[in-house]
Amino acid sequence: MSNERTPRRGVLLIVASPSGAGKTSLCRRLMADHGGLELSVSMTTRDIRPGEVHGRDYNFVSHEEFQRLIDADAFLEWADVHGNRYGSPRGPVDRALAEGRDVLFDIDWQGARDVAEKCPEDAVRVFILPPSLEELRRRLVTRSQDAEDVIERRVANAKGEIEHCDMFDYVIVNEDFDRSYAELAHIYHAERSRRFRNLWVGNYQAALLREVV
Ligand SMILES: Nc1ncnc2c1ncn2[C@@H]1O[C@H](COP(=O)(O)OP(=O)(O)OP(=O)(O)O)[C@@H](O)[C@H]1O
Ligand SMILES: Nc1nc2c(ncn2[C@@H]2O[C@H](COP(=O)(O)O)[C@@H](O)[C@H]2O)c(=O)[nH]1
């Protein structure tokens, strides 16, 4: 974002949803439009999909390596999701917060709960709902990245995930993509503008008050 004033306190923007509701697509566009926003690249034990890039979409690791990282307390949060393990590495988030940078998380509701518990001042939780479960299934099928049984498991898990939507700060129904993206971008901009995140305001205000007119 241009005309950056510092120091600031960063936003931890967490976007969660049932699988297929569209959070990754929304997060990708938010990243593309906001150079200063850093994606928390998760670790996962799931198999890499065609088109995915190790280190960009995820860090793909073995179950043994994932367990070693849990034992080393290397995760800010981790969870079992749809039969695999996923976790947000702690180091990049700690560094971003220390430097007042914003971090975007594309994680499930358990991760949203845990990050908000650990960083209550910084976390902003957004839940993406699908227009219907039928449309959710259609999107997963059209995405053509998962086997039929994996898709059915994800659709079956959707209600259990939607049940947790009450704990989120914001909810977006992702029917029209552009409109949903505009809502997400507005949330991000508004959260960045909150007084307590803009630590530079005190000095700025004092300078204005010293002005003689
Ligand atoms: N508003 C929308 N209308 C129609 N299709 C959409 C919309 N938003 C996203 N999609 C499509 O739905 C599919 C699923 O989207 P996406 O991969 O972003 O979901 P996700 O919530 O991140 O899923 P997962 O949790 O499995 O990663 C993609 O093919 C995407 O292009
Ligand atoms: N709690 C966490 N959930 C995560 C993390 N990274 C991704 N996820 C969520 O897992 C499901 C499935 O993702 P997929 O890429 O296999 O389709 C989805 O809800 C992700 O948001 C994480 O680090 N922690």
UniProtKB/TrEMBL annotation:
GO terms for molecular function: GMP kinase activity. Gene3D superfamilies: Guanylate Kinase phosphate binding domain, P-loop containing nucleotide triphosphate hydrolases. The keyword Ligase does not apply. It is found in: Cytoplasm. Its EC number is 2.7.4.8. InterPro entries: GK/Ca_channel_bsu, Guanylate_kin-like_dom, Guanylate_kinase, Guanylate_kinase_CS, P-loop_NTPase. It comes from the Bacteria. It holds the Pfam family Guanylate_kin. ATP binds at S17, P18, S19, G20, A21, G22, K23, T24. Residues 10-189 form the Guanylate kinase-like domain. It catalyses: GMP + ATP = GDP + ADP. Keywords: ATP-binding, Cytoplasm, Kinase, Nucleotide-binding, Transferase. The keyword Cytoplasm applies. SUPFAM superfamilies: P-loop containing nucleoside triphosphate hydrolases. Its main location: cytoplasm. Belongs to the guanylate kinase family. Essential for recycling GMP and indirectly, cGMP. This is Guanylate kinase. The lineage of its organism: Bacteria, Pseudomonadati, Pseudomonadota, Alphaproteobacteria, Caulobacterales.
